């Protein structure tokens, strides 16, 4: 167990962080918050959130705090080794993700312990900013399901829209003016009763993950006023399809330009 990875934190440092960050985040975005009544008042919980931009980390921090729960994020374990910064995030009770661990259960061990100690852990099931061209949630990894089924913690699905207008993905230049509205909605805890108490097989984890992502995607559809796609975007399948289409186009081009393609050569006069 990593130092201060057991859910412990410094109340003083958390008070300082709210004094600085709450007005700072509020100054750069307008808020349209919904569904905060779905947050459990106490006890460990998971917020499962779609990921559009690095700016949505700040939006989710404020949304969680104003819902009565101090936000705890999973961060790369290497960040905890950075002088000063590592010490601060430890004091705030943030949790490391050990990406070099071979077993997914070990990767999430600190998060599980934090939840058992009452933390509100914000989890991005996709693992990265969505690659879907239309910015719908893509196929998620199963870590969120493993964490939920291992700890028994409720999973509150959350969708947001608008943070990507403040800081688009791949951009390091925030667009602060005019202030953008960030819409966030939380739904009731995901019903995972069909998966609890079962061995954590690939099928069980995938089923639970899909149930969580279905709720998140549905909430995002409400915010956008659009019908979500029936199947989530899968980067690997999209790359494979693009390669197949490219090969088909190349084959067609070669066929159209070959001597025996059916074209009649000109007869010299």
What can you tell me about this protein's structure?
- The structure is a single chain.
- This protein has about 270 residues and is an alpha/beta fold.
- The chain has one domain (about 10-255): Glycerol-3-phosphate (1)-acyltransferase, CATH 3.40.1130.
- It has nine helices and seven strands, in the order αββαβαβααβαβαβαα.
- The chain has a seven-stranded mixed sheet, with helices on both faces.
- β3, α3 and β4 (about 95) form a beta-alpha-beta unit.
- α6 (about 145-150) crosses α8 (about 200-225).
- About 35% of the residues are buried.
- Mean pLDDT is about 85; it is low at about 1-5.
Number of strands: 7
Rg over C-alpha atoms, rounded to the nearest angstrom = 23 Å
Mean pLDDT figure: 87
Most strands sheet: 7 strands, mixed
Order of helices and strands: HEEHEHEHHEHEHEHH
Short synopsis of the structure:
The chain is an alpha/beta fold and 269 residues long.
Key traits:
alpha/beta, seven-stranded mixed beta sheet, globular, 7 strands, Glycerol-3-phosphate (1)-acyltransferase, disordered N terminus, 269 residues
């Amino acid at each position: 167990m990593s130092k201060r990875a057991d859910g412990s934190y410094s109340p003083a440092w958390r008070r300082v962080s709210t004094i600085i960050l709450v007005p700072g985040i509020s100054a750069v975005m307008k808020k349209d918050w919904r569904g905060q009544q779905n947050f459990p008042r106490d006890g460990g919980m998971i917020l499962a959130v779609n990921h559009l931009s690095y700016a949505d980390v700040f939006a989710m921090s404020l949304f969680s705090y104003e819902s009565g729960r101090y936000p705890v994020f999973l961060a790369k374990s290497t960040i905890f080794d950075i002088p000063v910064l590592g010490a601060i995030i430890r004091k705030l009770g943030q949790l490391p993700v050990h990406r070099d661990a071979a077993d997914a259960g070990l990767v999430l061990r600190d998060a599980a312990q934090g939840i058992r100690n009452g933390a509100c852990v914000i989890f991005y099931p996709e693992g990265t900013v969505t690659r879907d061209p239309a910015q719908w949630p893509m196929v998620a990894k199963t870590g969120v399901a493993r964490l939920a089924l291992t700890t028994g913690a409720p999973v509150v699905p959350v969708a947001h829209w608008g943070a990507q207008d403040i800081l688009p993905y791949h951009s390091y230049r925030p667009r602060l003016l005019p202030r953008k509205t960030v819409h966030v909605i939380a739904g009731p805890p995901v019903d995972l009763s069909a998966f609890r108490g079962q061995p954590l097989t690939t099928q069980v984890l995938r089923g639970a993950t899909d149930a969580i992502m279905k709720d998140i995607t549905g909430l995002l559809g409400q915010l956008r006023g659009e019908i979500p796609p029936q199947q989530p975007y899968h980067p690997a399948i999209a790359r494979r399809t693009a390669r197949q289409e490219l090969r088909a186009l190349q084959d067609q081009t070669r066929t159209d330009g070959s001597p025996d393609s059916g074209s009649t050569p000109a007869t010299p006069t």
